[in-house]
């Protein structure tokens, strides 16, 4: 070898490793006084370290460290852990929970079958509720427009063209207001930076 030993090679000699790569290292130490001094210095450090008392961390050390570490948990693991918290621990409680869940599932299934068989009644009730909601929404919108724009605007709402014109005007007003607020915010940010 025409170079000095590297730190990991000195560690191999300190650990008493055996193998085909260790023999050339030992031969180099016998010939190189600088590497022999490095090896002896490392042996002294190891001997001093061995005389130091072995300290063990407190039993709660790992918990305190892990409490400060942000651990990434995949979503499916989080869902399974949450579900496991709701599963009872005792066998009797699991049997009772399964029986209860089966009962609720059976009742809901029968209810859905009954609703499916009576779908015509459900459609009639749904359309009636939708009609009432539309009438109430029109009345509320008419009152709001009459309060904001006056009674002539309410008459305009009753025609399809007038309703489209009012809706378009409302959307344009919102776009203009948004653009104005954005411009004010941008100019105030520029002033703050300057």
In short:
The chain is mostly helical.
Molecular structure report:
It is elongated, with a radius of gyration of 41 Å. The relative contact order is 0.03. The chain has 194 residues and is mainly alpha-helical. The chain is built from 9 helices and no strands. 80% of the residues lie in helices and 0% in strands. Helix 1 crosses helix 3 and helix 8 (151-157) crosses helix 9 (160-193).
- Evaluate the radius of gyration: 41 Å
Shape: elongated
Low-confidence stretches: none
Tally of strands: 0
Through-space gap between termini? 66 Å
User: Level of helix content?
Assistant: over 70%
Assembly state (oligomeric): single chain
Q: How is the biggest beta sheet arranged?
A: none
* Category from helices, strands and their pairing: mainly alpha
How would you state the average pLDDT, rounded? Answer: 85
Amount of beta strand: under 5%
Number of helices: 9
Q: What is the string of helix and strand elements?
A: HHHHHHHHH
Secondary-structure topology with pairs:
Blueprint: H1 7-15, H2 22-31, H3 33-51, H4 61-67, H5 75-86, H6 91-117, H7 119-149, H8 151-157, H9 160-193
Helix pairs in contact: 1-3, 2-3, 7-8, 8-9
State the main characteristics.
194 residues, elongated, mainly alpha
